[in-house]
Fold each of these.
Amino acid sequence: MPANRFNAFTDYGIGIGLRVPHYAHILERKPVVDWFEIISENFMVDGGRPLQVLDRILEQYRVVQHGVSMYFGSADRPDRTHLKKLKALVRRTKTPWLSDHLCWGSVDGTYTHDLLPMPYTFSAARRTAEKIRHVRDTLEVPICVENVSSYAEFHVSAMTEWEFLREVVERADCGILLDVNNIYVSAQNHGFDPYAYLEGVPHDRVGQIHVAGHTKFEKYVLDTHDHPVLDPVWKLYAHATRLCGVTATLLEWDDRIPSFDEVHDEALKASAFIGGAREADVPPDKKASAPPVR
Amino acid sequence: MPLGFKPPPRRAPRGLKSDADLRALQRLMLHALVQPLTAADGLQPRWRDGRPMAEVAAEFIKPNGRLTPFERLQIYARCYWFRIIDCAYDDCPGLRAVLGEKKFSALVRAYLTKYPSRSFTLRNLCSRLPRFIREEPRWTAPRTALAHAVARFEWAQTVAFDGEARPVLTADDLADIPPAKLRLALQPYVSLLRLDWPVDDYVLAVKRRNALRGEASHAVDHGPRAASRKRVPRPRRGRVFIVVHRYNERLYYKRVDAAAFKILEKLAAGGTLAQAAGVAGRGVTPEQVHAWFETWMELGWFCRS
C-alpha cells in the first residue's frame, strides 16, 4: 500500500545518486541498488556518452529524475527549450515522478546555477504553483518539489518556510521531496525548530526524502553534500518516516565522492529507520501525533 | 552591466504583491551576486549607485544573531562565483596550463562578469570564452593567440562529447547522386580546427599530468589542483589541422592533411562533392581523396545537409 496518494512508490526503497566516478563500477559489477536518481540536466544533451551510459543503466535499474534548474520560483516563464529537452528525457527514462527545487535561480534568462531562497509570500506561492502546474501538464509526469537549504531570509516574507511549502504544494496539488538535511541546515541558519518544520508539512504529500551531509562553519552551516549524514539529520529522518510513512529515500553525495560501496553503505543506513516505520504500520494521518525523537 | 541584463530596481520592493515585485526582488539579488568578488573573495563594498552594499543588502535581507544582511548575501555571492569558476576550471585544463592559475582565474572572472550563463546547463558555460579572448586580449596577453586556439579546442571537445548526432550517411545513400549535386553535411558534433599550435598534443599532455595528480588523492573525483606543480611545456608554433570528433561515444582528435582539411571545410560550408574535391590542389591524387572519404565515412562524419 502506498503511504499516501503522492507516494505510489512506497516500495522504491533506498536509492543513490548516479555520479560519473561510479559509472565504471556500476556498469561492470552491476551492484544491487533499489534505484538511481539522475540529475536531469546532465542527460539533457543531444547525444554522446551521457545518453549511452544512461541507456545501459536503464536496462538494469530504475531511474528517477531530479532537476536543478527548473526554478519553479523564478519570475521567468519556463524556458521552452529546457522543457522540450526535459520531456524527451522523461520519455527516455520513464521516470515515475520528477523532482526539482522550491527556489529560484534565474532572471531575464541569466542563470546563477544556484538554488536561491524564495520570499515566503502568498503572491510568490501563487506564481510558483502556477509554474509547477504548467511543468507537470507539459511533461505529463507527477512532480515533487524539494525544500532547499538557505542562508538568508527576506524582509518581505510573510510566513514560515514550511507554511510557504504547504501553500505552494496545495495550490499546485503536487508532491514534496522532503530534504531533511536541508531542513536541518536551514534550521541552524535561521534558528527555527526543525521538528516544528516536520510537523508543519503536509505529510500526505511527501513522495520522496533526501538525506545528505553538510559542513559547519563558525557562523553558519553549508549544504555541501560532501560528508556522511550526521546524527541530527538521521534523527530528523527517523521522525520524518514516522510522520510520512515508508517513503522512497535517496542519499545525496555530490562532492569529494568516495567509492561506490562507501556511498551505498551510507545510504543503506536509512533502512533501519524505514524498517521502524514499516513495523509501526500506523496510518500516516495518525503518525503526525507521534512524539519526535531528538 | 553584463550582457543580457536588465537594470535592477533602485530600491528593494517593500512588499511582494505582484509578479513584477517578485521579478524586481530577484533582479536586485541577481545583480548583487554576479558582481565580481573582491580580491579577498568578498562581496563588493559598494553598490552600482555608490551606496554601501551593506545598506542595499539590509533593504531586502534580514540579519540574524550571527550574520549581517551583507554577510548572508556574501555566502550566496561566493557560492555563485566558486561554482562557476570550478566549472570553468574543469572544462579548460589546457587553457589553465597555458596561462597559469592566477591569470586563468582573472580571465574566467572577467569572462563570466561580461558573459554570465544564459543556459540552464553549465555545459554551455565556456561556449563564449574563445570570443571573449578575442574581444579582450588584455587578459591573456602576451599569449592571446595560443589561449584562443586552446579555448577553441577545448570548446570543440565539449561539442564532440555530447553534441547531436544525425543519421549517418552510408555508401548506399550516395550511390545514385552525381558528385556535382551531392552535398554532405558534417555531423553537428564534429569541429574543424585550423590552428597555429599543436594544441591537441599539448592538452593531452596536460590531461595526462592531471590524471597522475588525481591518482594521488583518496577521493574518486578529487580535482587535479592539489598535487605536482610541474608544468607541461607550452607548445611550439606549428600549423595543424585537427578534426575533433567522437567514435563509439569516445572523444578523439584526428590530425588531417591541409588538402583533406580544405575538402572538409568546403563540404561543411555547403559545397558539393565535386566542388570539395576541386579545392584539394594539384598534389593530391584521386586515390588519396578516395581513401580519405573512405575513412571519414567509416568514422560516421557525414550526414544529410
Amino acid sequence: MSKDNPPPQKEEEPPEPGLGPMGFGILVGTTALYAFYLLGPSAFGRLQSEAGSGPSSMRFLTGPSAFIPVAGYLAIAIILAVWPPTSRWGAGLLIGLGIFTLLGGGICVGALAQMGA
Amino acid sequence: MVGLPFAGDGLVHAGALGLGILAALLFYAFEKRRRGLSDPRLWPIAGFAVAFGAIGSRVLTWDFSRQVSLAEWWGNGDRSILAGLVGAWLGVHLGKRLTGYGESTGDLLAPAVALALVIGRVGCLLTELPGTPTGGAWGISLTPGQAEMLGGLPGVGLHPSFAYEIVFHAAAFALMWRFRDRLPGPGDLFICYVTFYALFRFGVEFVRGNEVLWLGMSRPQWFLLAILPLLFWRMLRVFGKPLRPKVEGRVA
C-alpha cells in the first residue's frame, strides 16, 4: 500500500433523529387521554342537558366500553411505532399511555366505567 | 419513630412515579448513546415497555375471586411492581417481534428500571402502609386516622419496607453500573437484576404487610416461588461463563 493513499474514510452513520417527535407524542398522547377522560364526561353531559335529553353523560362509554378509547389509542400507537417513518411518534404515544395509566389515568377510566352502574 | 407524612396522598405518589419514569427514560437515552446504539427501533421498544408495564401493573393483578369487574379493578384495584415488570417484559418482546429487532435489550433496560424504582418507591414510602410491626420502638408510626385509612396498626413502629426496597434498587443500580460491560453475554445484567430482585422481594414480603394468601405467604411470594426456578436456571448460564475483562472506553 502506498503512503500517498488517503486513509480510508469512516462510513458515516445517519444522524439519529432528535427527540422532538417522541416528546411531542408523549405530550399530545398524555394530554389527549386526560382531556378525554377528565373533560369528556362533563362536556358531553352539558351538551346532552342543553339538548334536553337528560343528565346522563357518555353512557355509551360506561362499563367495559370505557376501555374502547384506550384500546383504540393503543392500536394506533402500536401501528405508528412499528412503521419506521412514524416510529418516534408511536414511541411517544406509547410512553404517553404508560404515563396516563400510571399517574391517575386508571381512576379516570374506572370512574367513567362505573358511571353506568 | 417517624410518622408517615403523606398517607394516602395520590398526588405525591404519582409525582414520585412520574419522576421515576422520567429518570429512567433519560438514563435509557444516555446508556443507548454510551453504548453507541443508534437503531431507531430502540425507542419504540422502550415505549412498549412503559405502556405494557403500566397496563400490566393494573390488569395482571386482577383478582377474579373478589367478584370485581375489570373496570372497577382498573380504577380502584391493587397495582403491583411485579405485575408491571411482567407486563413490561411482555411489551418488550411484543415490540421486538413487531419491529423485527433481534438483539437483547435487557442490559439497556435493567439499570433504567432500577433507577425508576429507586425514585418511584419514594412515593410508596411517603404514602402507603409501610409494613408489619417491627416489635421495637423504631420504624414508621401511623396516627389512628392513617391506620384506619391504610389498614395498619396505629402507634407502633412499622417496618419501612419501601425504604429497604429503595436501598436494594440503589445498590443494584450501582452494581449494574460497575459491572455493566463485564458480564459474559447480552441480557445477563437483566437476568442477574431480576433474579436478585425476586429473591429480595420474596424476603421483604414477610415484613411488607400484604394479604397472606396461603401457608403464611402473600400473592407476590407465590408468584415469585413459581418463577424463581426459571431465574436460577438462567443465572447458572450467566455464571457458568467467565467474566469479560474490563474494557476501557466505549463499548458497543
